[in-house]
Amino acid sequence: MEISNSIYGDMYPYLIETMDRLTCHIEAIREDMKRSNGMDPVEHVLGRIKSEESMREKCRRNDLPEDKDSALDKIHDAIGIRIVCAFIDDVYVMRDKILELEGIELFKEKDYIKHVKPNGYRSFHMIIRVDGKVYAEIQLRTISMDTWAALEHHMKYKKNIQGNNELIVRELKRCADELASTDESMQTLKDMINDL
Ligand code: 0O2
Is the Cβ atom of 149 under 6 angstroms away from ligand 1? Predict the structure, then answer.
């Protein structure tokens, strides 16, 4: 990305560096947990810097000027990290471990697992401030929640489904609830195995 044209200006390299540092810390937490109890709480981790186009669109949507101040201080997901876990309890374990890291300050969190969105969306979101300088959004969810969110996201960009929209929305919600129930059963099974 051309720094001179970027909405992030000269902070763009710092955003990438911060994202890389966060993903390294997350990898270190995984290694540590694998060593201490033989279980990796994470399936995979993805990091991204919000694209220029997407950040400008979010500024417009929030009635903010399309500038560096909005992109870095008013909108908090220029850096986005998604952590996909196998089990629900791993989501909360990872949340706590991340907040123990040096230089990390919790700014806001939203628990869409306990407070499910009306469309069925489930995920745990936290906005953190890193080294008192930049914000990052961390999304933590299970594999099932991630699969559902990917399909629902894909659907939003399909323009030719108007006719069946209501049915699709209702079916998606049903799938979200079924997946959530499976997540709970898998968690119970894991707990039973651990207790053996
Ligand atoms: P992108 O391109 O995915 O990054 P806020 O101002 O904090 O109240 P905001 O920023 O919408 O409002 O926060 P929220 O609700 O925590 O959602 C932020 C991100 O979560 C979204 O980013 C999505 O990635 C994801 N998300 C939230 N709700 C849904 C949903 O119903 N379905 C799916 N598939 N994803 C969801 P962006 O910025 O919208 O886009």
Answer: yes
CA of 124 to the centre of ligand 1 (A): 11
Mutate to test the pocket of ligand 1, among 48, 115, 121 (most ligand atoms within 8 A of CB): 121
Q: Where are the domains of the chain?
A: 3-146
Q: What is the pTM of this model?
A: 0.92
Atom of ligand 1 nearest to the CA of 58: 38
What one-character-per-residue DSSP string does 98-162 give?
HHTSTTEEEEEEEETTTS--TT----EEEEEEETTTEEEEEEEEEHHHHHHHHHHHHHHT--TTG
pLDDT tens by residue, 130-178 = 999 999 999 999 999 999 999 999 887 666 666 568 888 899 999 999 9
CATH architecture of the domain formed by 3-146: 2-Layer Sandwich (3.30)
Task: Please tell me if the CB atom of residue 58 comes closer than 6 angstroms to any atom of ligand 1.
Answer: yes
